[in-house]
Amino acid sequence: MLRDRSGFTLIELIIVLSILAILSSLTIPKYKKIIAYEKLDITAKQLVADLREGQQKALAQETNVQADFYRNINGTSTDVYILKILEKNGYKKYKSVTLPKDIQLVDARFGNNNMLCTFSTSGKPTLNGHIKLENKNGQNLFVIVYQTGRIRISKDQP
User: Is the pTM of this model over 0.85?
Assistant: First the structure.
């Protein structure tokens, strides 16, 4: 009497699982790199949105707005940018953003005023400049600010 042998043998299952393990070990590092880049991209987009908000505040309230960039706050690896609005008795902070731990503020250059971007009452920055962000994989994005008021993200250094 012959039995109906449907199903897989143990050897077949082990071979399939081995192939799946090899394939996943090849794709997981790429997946992590993609996730790290997406985090960098989201951080750059948030920075652009905050700078544009500063432009709008400068226009709406007819005053200057500053974006100050700080690296390694208090000796830590924490990077921060702070948005301030000019009032009668000086600049007042209205927003402070701490960058994610695995995103680094490498550089912020605006003419001679490194680490400082100022928007005038017209909403335009007083100087051209850029901010360089980098993730733990060494991938970079640049937020470029033009004196015309345009703000954009680029993979290429300005």
Answer: no
